[in-house]
Amino acid sequence: MNLTNCTRVTEFILVGLPSAQGMENMILACVLLLYLLCLMSNGLIIVMVIMDHHLRKPMYFFLSNLSFIDIGHTTTFIPKLFVNYLSANRSICFYCCMAQLYIYFLFGVTAFFIIALISLDRYIAICHPLRYAIIMTPGLCLKLAVAAWCGSFFSILYQGVMITNLPYCTSNIINHFYCDVGPVLKIAGGDIQVIEALGFLVTVVVVMSSLLFTLISYLFIICTILRMPSNTRQHRAYSTCASHLIAVCILYGSVCFVYLRPTVKNSSLSVTKSVSWLNTMVTPVLNPFIYTIRNNEVKEAVWKVLRKKPPAFPKI
Predict the structure, then answer these.
(1) What are phi and psi of 24, to 5 degrees?
(2) In which band, very low, low, confident or very high, does the pLDDT at 67 lie, cut at 50, 70 and 90?
């Protein structure tokens, strides 16, 4: 087939969520519940950081960035998912699909950088507490956050442009519940080897480097905890690090499984869709609880937002 003279599709058809027959309504109800929990939990963190001056610290600044990312990440595709199901029309326009794909990965890549910055903040706070205020100034934190967002934007820009310019002539059915790179490339014409190689390179550089940085930071934190004189402080610090590492393992594990592969042609999209649940719906809901569940400053701020007298939480 001559791809240069083909008529480009104007819209794609999204197959939808992985489901058993007759379970669509139950699965959609679960998705709606997770989405509302994501909006409420992450939105509450953003509101608290803005309203409570006690939370205007580097840790909460980066955490509010992560909450904004989680809201944006899910909002990129869940409203469209519900519109398609309610209207019984599973189509999405070509440029809407390309925009969804790019914005989704913009939030996703930025999340890795922000998680790395959170680990850096915790490393300096625990391993170098006397120098923490000198090092982690508001100006530096702002520069780091801007660098994370700009780095994400430019790291996926060229790949996004190349995917948009591919010919789509043979099929317009995307076997996924949103416009993801793998399913889109499966129906693309032309030579996609360069795009696959570039995507694999970006995944290795961004994902693996941020994962290595995060793990090394927590390794130094654990070594510092071992030298703490108080067993109680050791236990609480260990449990906090363990919860953070659980969030890191869930996110990085699912992303590596889905995207850390040299080719998409022979990959199983049914398995990919199931694993995508973790980093698209479950992780954004878990992050606010994992990063704040043992944080007394956040607990006190929640009571202030709810206009109640804060209880006396034991200091860590």
Answers:
(1) -60, -45
(2) very high
DSSP code string of 268-310: -HHHHHHHHHIIIIIHHHHHHHHHHTT-HHHHHHHHHHTTSPP
Contact 169/119 with Cβ under 8 angstroms? no
Return d(Cα 238, Cα 201) in angstroms, integer: 34
Q: Give helix then strand counts, H and E, for the chain.
A: 13, 3
> What does the pLDDT look like over 128-144, one tens digit per residue?
889 999 999 999 999 99
CA–CA separation, 210 and 50 (whole Å): 27
- The model's pLDDT over 245-256, given as tens digits with 9 standing for 90+, comes to 877 887 887 777
Count CB-CB contacts under 10 A for residue 15: 15
The per-residue DSSP string of 29-89 comes to HHHHHHHHHHHHHHHHHHHHHHH-GGG-SHHHHHHHHHHHHHHHHHHTTHHHHHHHHHHT-
Question: pTM higher than 0.90, yes or no?
Answer: no
- H-helix or E-strand containing 188? none
